Amino acid sequence: MKVGLLKETENIIIEEREIPQIKKNEILVKVKHVGICGSDLHYYEYGRIGDFVVEKPIVLGHESAGEVTAVGEEVTNFKIGDLVTLEPGYTCGKCEYCKSGRYNLCPDVVFMATPPYDGAFAEYVAYPADMAFKLPDGMGTMAGALIEPLAVGIYAAQQGNAGLGQSAVILGSGCIGLVTLMSLKAMGVTKLYVVDVIKKRLDKAAELGATEVINAASQDTVKTIMALTGNKGVDMVFETAGNKFTTLQTAELVKRGGTVVLVGMAPESKLTYDIGKLMGKEATIKTVFRYRNIYPIAIEAIESGLIPIEKIVTDIFSFDDVAKAMEYSVKNKADIVKAVIEFK
User: Fold this and answer.
1) I need a labelling partner for 103 at 20 to 30 A (CA). Which of 24, 211, 215, 229 fits?
2) Using the 8-state DSSP alphabet, how is residue 113 labeled?
3) CA–CA separation, 200 vs 76, rounded Å?
4) CB-count burial class (<10 Å; 0-12, 13-18, 19+) for 296
C-alpha cells in the first residue's frame, strides 16, 4: 500500500509499505477520505505542537473514514463492506480517567498522527474495532471523515452548557469555529456572532447560520459585540482560533455569569489573562481537550440533517496529490476553509 509520509518539515513523500496485519480485536479499513486538520499543517510546517515533537518520519491525518476489508476473529459488530469512521484515539481503559468515562484525559492514549504514532494518510489502516463507528445507510465517507472535527465542536458546545435562547461569540471561523457554530445552532443557541479576519471564512459562517459576522481586520470586536448586546456581552465565548489576542478578548466579551470556553491553543500558552475581570463577572472558564463519547451523537446529528457537515468543505485533493494539498493549504490559508484528501 501507499502512505503519505512526512519525512521532515514541509516534505511529504509517497512511500510503499506492507498492508498492516490486524489483531483479533481489530478491523482493516480501506481509507476513502481524510480531512486535513490544523494540527497536520502545524506538524508539516513546524514539526511540533507544544510538547509533541516529530522526531522521526510520521504519517499524518486523523480525520478518517473508509470501508472495512477484513475483521479480526473477536470482532462481531462489523462485517466486510461496512463503511466506518474511526475515532482517532484509543486508550488504556484502566486508569481513573478511562474508568470514570473521561477517557480523553487518559495519559496513555494512542492518537493518530500525534508523535510517535502514524495516522491515516494511508491506503489501509488496522484499528481497534471498539473505536470504529459504522456509518448509517446513505452517509458517505466524506461526511464520515468530518465527524472528528464535528465531535470537537459538539464537545465545546457541551462545555459551554449551550441551550435554547442563549447567545455566543465564536472567535475564529476556521473548521473548528464552523463546527462549533453548527453545534450551537443545533442546540438552540439563537444569537451567534462569528469573528475572523478572513472574508471567505466569514462568508462560510454566514452561509451556515451566523447571526452576524465580524471582520476583526476592520472592526473592533469588543465594541461591536457590546453594541449588539446592549453592553451586556454574551452567554458564551468560544475561542477557536488559537490566538493570543483573541484569547485575551474572552474576558471582555463574556457577560456576567457567562462561560468562556477555550478550544484553540495559543502558541504563547503562558498569558497574562485578566482573571480579575472574569471574577468580577463571576464567569466560568472551561477548556477543551479533544472530546469523549461524542461520535454517536455526531453521526445522529448528521444523519438527521440537523448538521450539514459537508458544507464546510471547500477543497478536495486526490491522495496522490497529498504533498500538493498540504503545501497549498499552508500557502493559501485565506482561500481554504476545509480541505479533504480523497482516495480512489
Assistant:
1) 24
2) T
3) 45
4) exposed
CB contact at 8 A, 313 and 342:
no
Residues 91 and 193: their CA atoms lie apart, in Å, by 36
The pair phi, psi for residue 104, each rounded to 5°, is -65, -15
Q: Determine the Cα angle at 247 with ends 245 and 253, to 5°.
A: 100
pLDDT in tens, 185-239: 999 999 999 999 999 999 999 999 999 999 999 999 999 999 999 999 999 999 9
87/85 Cα distance (integer angstroms): 7
The number of residues in the chain equals: 344
Sequence letter at residue 75? V
- Do 260 and 251 touch, CB atoms closer than 8 A? yes
* Cα–Cα dist 183/209, whole Å: 11
Long-range contacts of 325-330 (CB under 8 A, 24+ apart): 325/36, 326/12, 326/36, 326/40, 326/41, 326/44, 326/60, 327/10, 329/36, 329/41, 330/10, 330/41, 330/44, 330/45
- The C-alpha cell at 257 is 455569569
**pTM across the whole model:** 0.96
Can you list the domains of the chain with their CATH numbers? 2-146+313-342 (3.90.180.10), 153-287 (3.40.50.720)
CA distance 205 to 184: 12
